Each structure stands twice: as structure tokens, then as C-alpha cells.
Amino acid sequence: MGLILKAVAIALSGAVLGLVIKKHMPDTALLLSLAVCCAVTGLALELISDIVEFVKELFELTELKSAEGGVVLKTVGIAIAAKLGSSICSEAGQAAAAVSVELAGAAAAVYVALPLMRTVIDMVRELL
Fold it and tell me: Mean pLDDT over residues 75-97, rounded?
């Protein structure tokens, strides 16, 4: 709970300060936005190690392959990175770059999931 409050406080402070700065120094406002993004992401990274440990434990208990869990975690990581990158591009007024980042993120997520999809196809073939 404390972590999310810190993240919200940093984000709101950065947003308000960014609005004030943007009128006179738009370049500095973008840099401030990047710094806020990095700070909040750093806070979120504190939780990721606990989440990864839980997922590993879950896969051990369910006897699923760790490779399958890795695919899920990588896909989530790609989605988060693509969303952050896209938002930063949008903030900078680069809508085309934002859409390109989202497209690249979607393609990367599908690419990472290909081995899992192949496993599903193999399972279906065995059933037929």
C-alpha cells in the first residue's frame, strides 16, 4: 500500500510540475516526465522479484514447465515496456512513434509466445 502511495505522489507531483514547466520549457517538461516514469518504474521493480518468486513456486506446485511461465512473464514485461514507451512518445507529441512502439510490443509478445503456441499445436495433433 505504501509503495502505490509513493508512486501516486511522485506521478502527481511530476504532472503538476510538468504542467507549470511546459509553458516555458517544453523540453525540460519532457525530461521531467521521463524522470518521473523512471522513478515510478523503479518503485514497481521492488515488487517484481516477489512476483517472480511466487510464479516460480506456482509452476513447481502445478508441475508446469518453467519455460511456459517464462513466456507469460516475458509477455507481461513486453506489454509494460511497450505501454511506457508509447506513453512517453505520446507525451512528446510523437503519435506515429507511439503507435509504432505499440505495434513492436504486440509483435514481440506474439514472437515470445510462439513456443507456447507450438506446444498447444503439438498437443492438438496428438489428440487427433
Answer: 89
